[in-house]
Design goal:
By secondary structure, the chain is mainly α. The chain folds into two domains: 2-114, no CATH class; 123-195, no CATH class. 69% of the residues lie in helices and 0% in strands. Helix 5 (49-62) crosses helix 12. The relative contact order is 0.16. Residues 1-39 have low confidence and may be disordered.
């Protein structure tokens, strides 16, 4: 029953349904939406690799479309809102099929998290995998590094950066599932700011 409640709440967030309506639909349960939202980051640390990779696959699939890619690329900015609310705001603007896939992936991840202990996570190793994926993208695509490093906020700069993010996602997809899951976990926590070596 607890997992059903989470599924209802997450689906509502991603489909822009008011939380009060979900509370009424949840079989009379007394819910604290704010508490669930505040615990989102903790729950994500408990998501098993399979479901974490499901999140990655949902993002990668949606990013194949130019318009949807522009919406998703903002998630990778270091200061982006990757909370449940932030993910929901992005998902609500996706095409219906992508929105449904994204909502299902997030719901599956959080339900699995509630049934799982904290997952082993080596942030340093995940960062190395991300750098290896970036190196692959740089070899395959001229302009990858320049695009990723472009911090300007004008439309051409955003387009260039997003193109590099899409190339990075393609390179990540070629890595084994445990690496994809670890990289996704890292990106959800930190964005792309940690790709560069520490000063």
């Amino acid at each position: 029953m607890r997992c059903t409640v989470v599924l209802l709440m997450v689906s509502s967030l991603l489909l822009a349904m008011p939380l009060q309506a979900v509370a009424q639909e949840a079989g009379g349960w007394t819910l604290d939406p704010d508490a669930l939202l505040a615990s989102g980051n903790d729950l994500l640390r408990q998501v098993p690799d399979t479901e974490m990779d499901g999140l990655f696959q949902a993002v990668h699939a949606a990013a194949q479309d130019d318009r949807q890619a522009q919406l998703l690329c903002g998630l990778f900015d270091p200061d982006a809102d990757r909370s449940l609310q932030g993910l929901g705001a992005i998902a609500s603007k996706l095409e219906p099929a992508s929105r449904q896939r994204f909502a299902t992936a997030v719901a599956d991840a959080l339900v699995a998290a509630m049934q799982s202990p904290p997952q082993a996570f080596d942030a340093a190793q995940a960062r190395q995998s991300l750098k290896a994926s970036a190196a692959t993208a740089a070899i395959l695509h001229d302009g990858f590094v320049a695009g990723l490093d472009n911090a300007s906020n004008d439309a051409p700069s955003r387009d260039q950066r997003c193109r590099s993010v899409r190339w990075l996602l393609d390179a990540m997809r070629s890595r084994p599932q445990p690496e994809r899951a670890a990289m996704t976990r890292l990106l959800l926590e930190q964005g792309l700011s940690r790709l560069a070596p520490a000063a």
